[in-house]
Amino acid sequence: MLVDWVRAYNAHDAKALAAIYAKDADLSDKMKLLKGREAIQRLWQERFDKNPNVKTKQTSLEVRFLSPTLAVETGYWEDANREDGDNAKLKNGMWTCVNQKIGGKWVIISDRGWTQEQSE
User: Fold this and answer.
1) Average model confidence (pLDDT) for the chain?
2) I want to staple 14 with a disulfide (CB 3.0 to 4.6 A). Which of 44, 57, 70, 113 is the partner?
3) Which residues are paired to 113 by β-bridges?
4) pLDDT value at position 115?
5) SS (H, E, C) 28-65
6) CA dist., res. 21 & res. 1, Å (int)
7) How many other CB atoms sit within 10 Å of the CB of residue 102?
8) Residue 111 above 70 pLDDT?
9) How would you classify the pairing of strands 105-117 and 90-102?
């Protein structure tokens, strides 16, 4: 699933990226909690519009299976070519996702990320 997420992000395909999330998933972004696939797709599209050259590298650190259909995954992210004002300084951080197997397919049901601010 992480490979598909990175592929969609680096292709700036907000629709494909949002499809990796459950229909009623939630995602935290800058102290806001977004709910639902449509809100998540809008977030990614806005990010790509503000950062036409952004690329990401994601590294999974651990996957913990809580059941055969529920897992928590944690990792690092690192972005290149961020151009969105003050956010351009946010180049890396960590994330934790809760993934659920629904209808035979793994999807993200909850996505939390945080950044490590960088000085230029």
Assistant:
1) 90
2) 44
3) 95
4) 83
5) EECCEEEECHHHHHHHHHHHHHHCCCCEEEEEEEEEEE
6) 10
7) 12
8) yes
9) antiparallel
Residue 12 tokens read as 């700036």
Q: Which pLDDT tens digit goes with each residue over 40-78?
A: 999 999 999 999 999 999 999 999 999 999 999 999 999
Residue 18 — left, alpha, or beta (φ > 0 → left; ψ -120 to 50 → alpha)?
alpha
120, 88 in Cβ contact below 8 A? no
Backbone region of residue 85 per phi and psi (left: phi > 0; alpha: psi in -120 to 50; beta: other values): left
Q: What are the structure tokens assigned to 21, written together?
A: 């999330």
Three-class SS of residue 12? coil
Which of 88, 91, 60 is closest to 78 using CA atoms?
91
19 forms beta bridges with none
Handedness of CA 60, 66, 69, 70 (dihedral sign): negative
Percentages of the chain per state (helix, strand, coil), in multiples of 5: 30, 50, 20
Chain-centroid distance of CA 81 in Å reads 17
